[in-house]
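Handout, page 2. Input:
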Amino acid sequence: MTVKGEGVSKRILVIEDDLDMSGIIEGQLKDAGYAVTVTHNGTSGLELASKQEHDLIVLDLMLPETDGLEICRRVRAMPGYTPILMLTALSSEIDKVVGLEMGADDYMTKPFNLRELVARVRTILRREDAVRAERDEGEPETIRRGNLVIDVGKRRATRSDTPIELTGKEFDLLLHFARKPGRVYSRQQLLDQVWGYGYEGYAYTVNTHINKLRAKLEPDRDNPRYIQTVWGVGYRFADDLD
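Output:
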């Protein structure tokens, strides 16, 4: 079975130690048309993530043997890019921020609505399809802005030939800016276009990521050269670097 209107079934890896929860999630995702693989501990989950290709990983934070944050960190160090939807019973804002900072694409706190879970899965996968479509339709594999070079396919960035170590979302944010130098984005627009579904009201997430991105990217963090603040409006990528 395929997801209506979305072509070949997407492959989803579910890493969840709660047998009842994993069974429910598996059933919902299969009913929605996805091909689902389930494992119940972090070590086997990490092995599956490294040896098999998946379109999305649904990842519990609290896992036996290897926890979700470590899995997230190690998946982000692998070649290519696999989106991650993180699940957890923890509900504090700091837990959400940590999960996103480690490279999760989205975050849901238990208990959650299963329809919302499927909706978020679809949103993440469609966003990834849109990125691939842009690349297939002629976006250059390498974007150069001054001495900054962004390798789109390998999801790597360098400045003056020095690698910049970025989390998945930091890279997404940088690429989004660099694609359209000079264009001003509000925080809400960045939430909608980079983070997507379910981030209304999390404007601080944008601020946090921009601050961290600047710390890694800017030679002088106090006088940003690449990502500039447009007071009262939002942010833009400098258009005078080429």
